[in-house]
Amino acid sequence: MKKLIDILTVKSFLLFQTLFFTAYQTIAAESCSENAIPIISSWTHTANPDQSLLFIGDLFPLDSEINFEGSDNAHFSGKTQWVDKTHILVTLPNSIKKDIYSLRIGKDNCWSIPVFINAPELWWNYPAIPKPNEKVRLFGRNLAYLENSHPAVYLQSTDHPEISKWINASVQNQYALTFKWPNDITSGQWQIRVATASKVQRGWSDPLVIEVNPAVNEVINKIQVSNIADLLNTISQLSHTKDKTEIHLAAGAYELGKTLFIPENIQLVGAGKEKTILKIVKDLHSIKGLVGEGLPFSKGIEQSPIELYNIGSVAKTAILVAGSNSGLSNLALIGNKSTQIGISISGTVKNPLHNIKLSEIKISHLSKKGVELSLEAILARYVHGLEIKDSTLYGNGAAIFLEHISDSAIVNNQVTGLSEGVIYTREGIVKHCIIEGNTYLPTQVENLSGVRAIYMSTQYGSVYENYIANNKGAHFHPPKGTEQDRGEAILIESSLSHPYYGTPAKVGNNFIVLPDKEVDWQALNNKEKRGTLPSGYFIIVVSGRGQGQIRQVLSLEDRTLHLSKPWVVNPDENSIIVISEAVYRNLILNNKISDSLSGIQLWITGADNIIAGNELSDTKREGILLYGELGRKPSEFKLNPKQDDLSYPFGNLHRAGYNSGIGVSYFNEVHNNKVINSKIGISIAVDDFRTRVGGIAFPISVGNKVWNNQIDTTSKEGITVGLRGSPVGSIKNKGYSLLGNIIEQNIVKNIPKTYNSDMRSQASVLRENIFYLKSKELLKNIKESELPILNLKDSISIQENNIIK
């Protein structure tokens, strides 16, 4: 995009944005009483022509009108499918063009403040702190939504707004852009925006704020060595240097009799992973402080993972990266029977490591035994800015085991392993990570495989804003001879805990205050134990004013939680909130994986995740599963921050766990995927304890949207919406666990059953799907207008223009 918009235009846009919303607020205030103005708190953010949207808010008239305005200033109304005071389902006309729209809800002279659909949303960037002339990647939603759009990046100094710059961006897909960071950007705080349309008021993202460091002319010293004695001596001499140094090790085979330490600012560079070979030849000594988890499996016997805690746990590792700004490249590592971990990168809560680079490495022949230890090719703990690329990694546990990782890239590797996950994240926060272009190799152990290709699971934090794309592989199952309910291609989950559940004492635009003495945060001051940090929690509004909103906690100050961004609509003193870990804004795109127990699962909790363009074949259960849960009554939770407790999972702790808790499934998008040969193609589901005890106060699964997917060959339904794994409660227990989930324009082939929505699902939208049954005999039993749906008497199911053949 050329410089369509100069600085004056940008200022005009910002002025327009202010006046635009101020004007509507003024009109609304003058036209009707304050307690009658409709409000919109959360909504479907993407909708093509002839698709549906869910809006959540308050004070919606039962005869509401929905007014849309496009970039050409043309106005039109959507079709209201279902409405109550706080929810509206709307379908766009087929005749409109694909565009970014503003919309208002109301009637007569009383209208809500406008919101936008299909507008660009900028979520995060990589790397976190760009360097001059470095390629920067931007991630978000609808960054290139408009066809033939040419998005541009606008940079503006926060400290000096008069300084700004336009840069052309390259489109990777609808969710990812790239551009080159300029070499003349000054240090300080900068804002990044994406512009995708000439009508700037509709085509701009909100700003993403980053810190830019002063430009430094980096000098890297280079030293050549050709034998192991010189290598060890050079590393020893440089162990306290502040200068960055590359030690180049010549081609050849080198024997190591002990763990090789790589200190701060040292990069070990070989002549190539087939030319420079490090071989472990002696029994290694154990090193404290390395976590072990995710045991391998013996043939036909499951050895359940044993949790080890950071303090006092030991492992034998061939190479230990012990300082920041360091790494290895262009070499091979061959282990022996004592080599449990190939390369360990071990920071701590107090002292995380930064900027670790591993590339063109081959790791193999690790130990097959580790009674209380995982057997990873690479283990990384508490690292910001980790890069593992173009490497071949054979792990007898995980190929790559990550704990508390951010701003990192795991790219273009060939990997294999036998653990719970071949690429396996565990324990702490996982954010702003790229897992892309990795290929899964057959294991070196006959008839055994890794249980999952990618397993992003945390005990002490959330999994949010990661990019998981273009990975491929096959054969992910539990060990033979075991009856384990595991074996997903990609599984993302968090072990939930809820420091607070209830109503807030006070709410501001970007903060929330908890009631006095409700939460004991002092436990987190004990740095000798791991726990979910405040920044690992999210605040979710599950009921009342502001329902459907989710905000990350940035910091804690006494009883005040400061938030990542302002509320659209502030919750009030009657709103019900829950503080929880979350799976949030992950982009899962264009992965191709076959032969697994299940395909892609968002387990227990997930909001605003996008699953698109994936190809999943030969899954014995669901191809794609969006799963929410309330596994206990809220009164049963102990409401404190989560920390280590050796009685887990048997103790009655404050944590809810991996399979229980208040785990919402909000506004996830699933589109343009292929699911071939599965039990159920795509499932939106909950396991709701409340259906057994009665009384459903709020829905758990809300506003998920499934469209334009291809499903071919299932043993049961093509698509389901409803309960999974729980007995259906008494029909006298009023309420719905699922609400406003949208299934549209999918093609489902070679199936015995079409679709099912059970009695706990309210206002499911089923439109313009094409179902091809396996036989004409099955077709005789189903009328075109009657899909198998079991509902409560007062529930609504919206069905339009579905075709059954």
UniProtKB/TrEMBL annotation:
InterPro entries: PbH1, Pectin_lyas_fold, Pectin_lyase_fold/virulence. Transmembrane segments: none annotated. Gene3D superfamilies: Single-stranded right-handed beta-helix, Pectin lyase-like. This is Right handed beta helix domain-containing protein. The lineage of its organism: Bacteria, Pseudomonadati, Pseudomonadota, Gammaproteobacteria, Chromatiales.
